[in-house]
Amino acid sequence: MGAVIDLGMPVAGGAFDEHHPPDAALIGDCVHCGFCLPTCPTYVLWGEEMDSPRGRIYLMKEGLEGEPMDDAMVSHWDACLGCMACVTACPSGVQYDTLIEQTRAQVERNHERAPKDKALRGLIFAIFPHPKRLRLLRGPLRVLQRTGLDRAVRRTGLLERMAPQLAAMESLAPRLGRPEPLPPRITATGERRAVVGLLTGCVQGAFFPGVNSATARVLQAEGCDVVVPPKQGCCGALSVHNGRETEAQDYARAIVDAFEAAGVERIVVNAAGCGSTMKDYARLLGDDPAYAERATAFAEKVRDVSEILDELGPVATRHPLELSVAYHDACHLAHAQGVRAQPRALLTGIPGLELREIAEGELCCGSAGIYNILNPEPARELGDRKAANIVATGADVLVTANPGCLMQVTAAIERSGHPMGMAHTIEVLDASLRGAPASSLREGTHPSA
Ligand code: SF4
Ligand code: SF4
């Protein structure tokens, strides 16, 4: 790749329009060293230059210089998981996260997708960013799970053959527990140390209500008043990551409104993908004069739950949990937010708990938002590879901090035939604070659900 010329605007007739094309200066930061290649899951799977960060950046440069957007070009960008392992690996500080986000918004505006792809994306976005619609799905899903019909359908392999993407969606659905609605305000135990707002999320709220309850209990025990704004909707993460820029901005504005009205000092998130998006609201709403400043103030308050607990320091008593735990770094927590030490510190602060690291820890598990539905084959391969590395730790429980990873890894572990406990980081800490037995974590898919 030659040096990127300083393009103020994309060349007419090329891939991009003038609304935030991939930034030429950021593209120019890439020195083509290839350090990112071994951490890029698609390059690891296929060994193709155009399915590496460097190759994708090269295609952006070509698009800026006048190359039209075609199916092949889009397929390489579509195949990117958005895992941001390349951002961590890059010694030159290339902001691939910004580049791929700008590129994906251009693709959604300027590229006509095949009708089947369009319909699937339409279906996903008609359901996933809507907490109420997701909650409505709980009833039929629970019936399927309780009657064993879901497993029976899976065994026939029929859905897999007819509609692999729908089969992927079905196989990822977690075992559902009872709903656990949270009150609008929960008062701190003992001396109040902070007033925090809790994002309940779409998938987290509908499919993992126990994680939200555990988060609220832990924050309460650590001296926080927890405010749960009742009118909160989707944070826009799925939309941002899939180039649906205006939709994402609408969701972001509504979230800013809801949490401003709550009057909180910090906004706590327990889903990695949501946290990384909300920390980036200043950029997402940067063009909106009514929201730009408010979005910046909002983003500064956002913390992953492990970050706020680390900042506050522990006051509640930790009861022992004789347990070995393999911790899986969610990409949007480790690579996108740089949060690695805090969840590990929370876990190792529990007496009796042994933390085990997973080989190839930087490699994505294949979940990546809705990637595992849109691209079931590579996602499954990555999931199986992750499951093998997790099983090799010999740990009792797999712990991670993102609902997407929990669903993806649970399905892969089930396929591996080596069942183990699965939990969110906060559920482990909650079990310790409550003095729950270690067996509740070893045996449960989600102990507080
Ligand atoms: S975000 Fe992940 S999949 Fe995409 S180019 Fe970077 S490392 Fe590869
Ligand atoms: S590591 Fe950074 S500079 Fe090197 S090829 Fe990858 S993106 Fe470019």
From TrEMBL:
Pfam family of the protein (one): CCG
EC number of this enzyme: 1.1.99.14
Superkingdom: Bacteria
Reactions catalysed: glycolate + A = glyoxylate + AH2; (R)-lactate + A = pyruvate + AH2
Cofactors named for this entry: [4Fe-4S] cluster
Gene3D superfamilies: Alpha-helical ferredoxin (1.10.1060.10), NAD(P)-binding Rossmann-like Domain (3.40.50.720)
Start and end residues of each 4Fe-4S ferredoxin-type domain: 20-50, 70-94
Cofactor detail note: Binds 2 [4Fe-4S] clusters.
InterPro entries in UniProt: 4Fe4S_Fe-S-bd, 4Fe4S_Fe_S_CS, Cys_rich_dom, Glc_ox_4Fe-4S, Helical_ferredxn
Function: Component of a complex that catalyzes the oxidation of glycolate to glyoxylate.
Record's protein name: Glycolate oxidase iron-sulfur subunit
Lineage: Bacteria, Bacillati, Actinomycetota, Actinomycetes, Propionibacteriales
Gene name of this polypeptide: glcF
